[in-house]
Each structure stands twice: as C-alpha cells, then as structure tokens.
Hints:
Blueprint: H1 3-22, E1 27-31, E2 37-40, H2 43-46, E3 51-55, H3 67-71, H4 79-84, H5 90-127, H6 136-166
Helix pairs in contact: 5-6
Amino acid sequence: MPIASRLAGFAACALAAQLAAAQSSDIFKCVDESGRAHYTNVKKDAQGRNCTLVTREVSVIPSGTSPAAAARGAAPGAQAAAASFPRVDRDTQKSRDDSRRRILEDELSAEEKSLARARQDLAEQESVRGGDEKNYQKVLDRLQPYKDAVDRHERNVAALRRELANLKQ
Length: 169
C-alpha cells in the first residue's frame, strides 16, 4: 500500500477521533469559590477544578402545544388534544362567576369597613398630643403605623374594585 494512501487513512481516522471528542455529550457541573455552579461540556475545562459529571447524554424533546394553541390550530394533530381538554358548561361557569363576584363584594365591604376604622384611629391619634412629644419627629413616628394601615386598606380597596371591574358581566 502506498504511503500517501496510508497517510490519508491515518488523517481520516485522526479527524474522526477529533470530531467524536468535540461532540462529547458529557456535561460537568463545576462549583467555583463563591459557591456558584457552572456547567460545561469541555472536559479540559473541568479537569483540576471542583467538577462532577452530571450526565453523559443530553436529550432534546420538542415541547408540546398548549390547549389554547391547539384550539387555534397551531399544530397538526393538536385538535385531538383540544377536544380532550376539560370544558365547563355555561351554567356551571355562570355559577362560579356569580360566586366569585359575591366573594369579592364581601371582601370589598369588609375592607371598606377596615379602611373607615383605620381612618378613624388615625384621626384620634392625630388629635392626641403627649407631653413627652416635644420633638415633632416622635409624633410622626407614633402616627406612622396608623398611616401605613390606612394606606394598606386603600390599596386593598382599589385592588378589589379593579378585580370586580374585570369580571365578565
């Protein structure tokens, strides 16, 4: 066998070995000094460091489609998935919506009462002046929890009103 063909065969074997090494599917998890994890598939980078072999294979699985995307016809064959998605009849959904509205209205009513009570408590505290509060900052510090309570209840009332406005009629 001529030397040229032997060299060509040897070069082809060496190239195949390099490609196989480059496509290694070993994944290493390396933890640095600060405790952060880094992942690499380069064996040379993992040597001499605090690295462990995580996996030898990486599988790629295509994601499925959501029922909403299937109903719009986003993927072929997804119509069967949309048909098997649970449906609620109109009366049951209306009952659920009415129940949700009633619960939100009850919460809104309770929150408005709490807001009125918090405002009343704040007004009472603003009218009280202790003899040890010559420094106005002490007054502000004493009133701050009452102001926070009023603010919290106002935000809750606003959120409940938004939620009620977003409900279907």
